[in-house]
Amino acid sequence: MPDAATHRSGAMAAMAAVNIAEASAGRQVDVIEALVSTLIAHGVASLPDLLEPATSPNHRQLFHSWLALGGATYLLRCLHRWQPEEPFERIVRTVGKAACVAYVAHLALDALTPRSLPMVGRI
């Protein structure tokens, strides 16, 4: 099972990849915004484990599920398409995207383990 350090590294790598992909696609990426979003991803990387602590091998429920992964991915897509006009909206978009990328990266790493992810949660 990936540990907290692995989740943080994965989230930072995923956020850096998103920023590089956006820059490669011709979208203007602010360097400070890219650095801040990567640091936010680092900080949010363990959020699923804070919501559902790994107290047993069967700790994965709703927040560690394919449903949660799909929801976070959809929210990330919505945030990616959003073109904010106000400075506060840009901050919300940056923080939201970083949090979603970190969440998706966390669940993607957990999906690669032998127990993988439940569809919705275990009963």
Structure description:
The chain is elongated. The protein is mainly alpha-helical and 123 residues long. 66% of the residues lie in helices and 0% in strands. The chain contains 5 helices and no strands. The two termini are 21 Å apart.
Number of strand segments: 0
The helix-and-strand class reads: mainly alpha
Into which percentage range does the β-strand content fall? under 5%
Model regions low in confidence, pLDDT < 50 over at least 5 residues: none
Features:
single chain, 123 residues, mainly alpha, 5 helices, elongated
List the SSEs and their pairings.
Elements: H1 4-24, H2 31-44, H3 47-51, H4 66-81, H5 87-111
Short description, anyone?
With 123 residues, the chain is mostly helical. It has five helices and no strands. Helix 1 packs across helix 5 and helix 4 (66-81) runs antiparallel to helix 5.
